Amino acid sequence: MISINGLVKNFGELEVIKGIDLNIEKGKIVVLIGPSGSGKTTFLRCLNVLETPTEGKIQIDENVLDFSRPVSKKSVAQFRSLTGMVFQSYNLFPHMTALGNVMEGPVTVKKIPKSEARKRAEDLLQKVGLADKIDFYPFQLSGGQQQRVGIARALAMEPKVMLFDEPTSALDPELVGEVLRVMENLAKEGMTMIVVTHEMRFAKDVADEVIFIDGGYIIERGHPDQIFNHPKEERTKQFLSVFE
Ligand code: ADP
């Protein structure tokens, strides 16, 4: 379903992603792990074209962006709409309620009638356990609640794949679980997900595949059991030893 070929991203002289090839099947949960600065966030941001790849091809179903030639704004916007991004820092609109945040994309981008968008936003907020908070503003919500609004907001655009960039790392420890549970439920429903996280428990329990990235390359990939219990590469072993 998702196909990434020869992905390269440079920031000026700095080579951050050095050639990544990856195929992901529909409904799979892929967790990206790796040291800070290894390029995980940049990789994810390339997939929804918040960063423009320097080289390579990305494909979701029949939609392809080939960065060996100029890509139009329209094709980027279309491609981006296939992905839902959840950020570490929630990035909610502060002047809108939870409901307003979730309705905004469908109404302004997809031109869905307000009444329909509202119904769907209410359903999504219920799904993430916030039925009683729909009229609250972000400042009235805990970090975990804000992040769950962030997930509902991304889902409202009906993406084919959800991208999570360290969704729990800004949260107090006691709030991490509620966000991970929402993600686990999404996984159970068959959503295709790519998740950058340091939550190794989540990776072990939920991932179909774990990918270890270091220095802009995929060093090793495999089933969580293989990566966590029988890593082949020295660098993977070293990285994981910190979490033991
Ligand atoms: P990770 O998510 O694994 O911690 P990142 O993708 O955030 O890694 O960063 C990888 C490298 O790319 C780092 O050296 C970082 O400083 C650099 N980098 C990320 N974004 C930019 C940018 N917008 N401009 C310049 N350098 C960047």
From TrEMBL:
Keywords: ATP-binding, Cell membrane, Membrane, Nucleotide-binding, Transport. Pfam families: ABC_tran (PF00005). Residues 2-240 form the ABC transporter domain. It is found in: Cell membrane. One of its GO terms (cellular component) is plasma membrane. Gene3D superfamilies: P-loop containing nucleotide triphosphate hydrolases. CDD domains: ABC_HisP_GlnQ (cd03262). Its main location: membrane. Coiled coil: none annotated. Transmembrane segments: none annotated. GO terms for molecular function: ABC-type amino acid transporter activity; ATP binding; ATP hydrolysis activity. It comes from the Bacteria. It is a peripheral membrane protein. The keyword Cell membrane applies. This is Amino acid ABC transporter ATP-binding protein. It comes from Chengkuizengella marina. The lineage of its organism: Bacteria, Bacillati, Bacillota, Bacilli, Bacillales.
